[in-house]
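Task 17 of the worksheet. Students: predict the tertiary structure of the chain below and write it out as structure tokens. Keep your answer in the requested format; marks are given for formatting as well as content.
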Amino acid sequence: MLTACMLPLRMLGLLMLMLSLCDADSICPTELNPLTLDVPRVIEKYGASVEVNCTSTEADHNGMYWRIGNNDSRVIIGESLISQSVSLSEWNVTVECRIMLNETHECSKELEITIYQNPTVAVFPVNRAVEGTLFELQCNITDVAPVQNLFVRWFKDNQTIRTDNFTNTTTTPVSESSTLTVNISRAEHGAEFRCEAQLDFGPHGPQLPVDSEIYIVSVNYAPEFKNTSEDFFVHEGDDVTLNCDAEGRPQPTFHWKHDGKKLSDTNNLNITRVNTSGTYNCSAINSLGSITKEIHVHVTMNIPAAPAVITTPAVITTPEPYKPRGCPLVLTPAKIVCFVELDITLYKSPDIVSVSALDSGPVMVGTEIQLKCDIINVTPVQTLTVRWYRGTDILRTDVLDENRRIPVNMSSIFNFTAERDYNGAEFKCEAELQLETNRPDLGHNLTSSPYTAVVHFAPEINEGTYTKEVNLDGHVTLNCSAEGNPLPDLHWNYTTAENVRETTRGHQKSLTITGATSTNAGFYICVATNKVGEVTSTVTLKMKGQISVFPWWLLIGLIVIVIVIVVVIVLKHYKKLGRYSFVLDKANHGSDIPMAPQSNGTEDTV
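Model answer:
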């Protein structure tokens, strides 16, 4: 016993180690392993070389050596430090430092090795970017390892919009992909979408470079006119240039027609020496659609002024003295000539009556719309009345009070506040000459072509917020549609599941849940968005058919506890109310027994 106590401490450690290695598996416990690596973990690029040192705290051993893969290096005896250069040219290489404690037992320390290869990124579109559709970009990441340390980030104009990582545990190079889906609009034309890929080994690992690629999106949309109908007023013999004024992507081509005849395939149409009024049709066409608008050319002529009062001779024959009306003297019987003034009004009905908006394009709900009614080449103005209509309802009547007796161009302005119901409403004006005549067939009134108002307003979801129930393993469909101008974009926010499918039909977006489970219960939020605003509605999905099991065992347990408490209280109360008997002292009975309580429950007397 004394001899064992005098052994060096390191020999005791070795002895304990050898004893611990006497089990069936010859395991070397971590706390007794004498080996340490000065670089316990290596994170290096494929093909690199690393230098590793192995140190033993136990100098009394039979040798140290390296095992690389299935190959062992030569054994070094009498040293407590050995070094090895390792080439990382094999993806699954293993490196161990080993020590022979005796002829039968060894300990080892394995080097943690992570071999990496930086990713290469390529971005390309999966489909064509068309306004109002889902546009997909795919980012391909090739020859990257280890993929479980790969992070892929998507940016839109330098703002992070998505991050992906991967759970594959393979250590050799693989190729992965990440897909970004965007509800694209023309406002995103020219936007930069960037995909970045980087291996991330944490704050203490190497900071590796980022590989990225940018895709600049070009959003396509069907042609659109800035004005759907136009009117040009020119004098006879003048030249006029008509502009189709349409935009779209791809750039549209143009076609002009007049009276069914093809005129030109350019954006502008030049007409020289116009002498008749007419309507010209312009069509704008690209691969996504075609539109056509009418341009009306109105030719006007100046009418020379005419006298408002005409003096004309009147021949009067009278057999006796007579003073005709309009003659200053009494006439003797004779044939005379007398001049009489006749009051004559010359009128001209308008050549053209048209309505246009002072500010072209759509307006927002609550803003003011200004419409202008142009009345071309009309006289006399003091008899001109202008009526404004929405549909068949008269909105306002203007009487133009100007003393002009030659044909002129006049106008009337009508202001009103845009309301949602006005979207698509037709406004027109009517010009009428209020002449004192018995000739209604002369047609003194003329009505303009209608102006169709375009009013933008925020979305309103038709279904609203509601609750729906579904049986377990049943099927249910949640619908969402909205009204708005422009037409709203719809999307659902919900917890994704394999049994939930999203479909679009017309302007309605639906969620179909098949084989419903309890995990499908919850909130499903429909979001409708346009450039005026955004609204949401919530559908609460509940499961029915689930019978609540009442915890009868809990109720029974509570009843038993209550009964026990009552019994205990009653027993305590009974003891407090117990009967007592008294025993006479020894002077009277010859006994030294003091009085004591009677506990047999019978009544005693004294």
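Marker's comment: Confidence is low (pLDDT under 50) at residues 1-26, 305-318, 579-591, 595-606. The radius of gyration is 51 Å.
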